[in-house]
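Why do we care about 3D structure at all? Because function follows from shape, and shape follows, mostly, from sequence. That is the central idea of this module. The next example makes it concrete: a single protein chain, its amino acid sequence, and then its structure expressed as tokens.
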Amino acid sequence: MRPPTPFDSDLLARLAAQTRVTRRRNLRLIHDAGLGHIGADLSATDILTVLYGAVLRVDPERPDDPGRDRFIMSKGHASGAFYTTLAHSGFFPAEELETFMKPLSRLNGHPPRNKVPGVEASTGPLGHGLPIAVGAALASRLDGAPWRVYVLTGDGELQEGSNWEAAMAAAHFGLDRLVLTIDRNGLQLAAPTEETMGLEPLADKWRAFGWAVREVDGHDHAALLSAYRDVPFEPGRPNCLIARTHKGQGVSFMRDEPAWHHKVPDAAQLEAALVEIGETA
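And the structure:
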């Protein structure tokens, strides 16, 4: 493994500021809608910010550019953070976030491929995103195209057997342009993953399936950037990045609390959470 790449302090400061913007806006839209998955949103925010802020080769002016990288949000229930990231990246007006979960809004609970620019696959039913990503990465290989495929899954989602079928296929075809990030916050719905269906030793499982594996702090922007810029981790092997995160990251009374999987903050809780996250400038 190469030593960590040094990054410009301005880039890291910009990513940190954008993370605060996304968390604040996400909290407000879930409060206003009265629906959402705030714990999962907050655990994935740093990953999404780094990907869209410094890694993915995408153009919001040309969301269907054939040469773009593909990003698949397999943990589609974390749509609030995803939509907020897409809006702030320029894929659609930020004002549209105010329609989140409203009747006839295209910003519904699970991201729809045919309605929202920048959404590569309609996801939400868990275990679908990685198989789709494997197919896309194989298409890239067959076409001799340079683009990569990135996919973000939850950790409880890995209990779906379709992921492991996809994992075998990706290794078999040597899809080193495929980059899986696992949001490893240790919680699913109402309990820890290890109490529901143990996943550890998770890194060893992926290595046994033929993947090259890295583990990072999923809230450390420099560590995430260093890992993504080191892809492929090993030529000829698909890439698995296990991002150790905290559900509800950024808000002390939500952090690592299963109750905030699907809970909505009231006005007082919203204000307290916004104070903790801090100002955006």
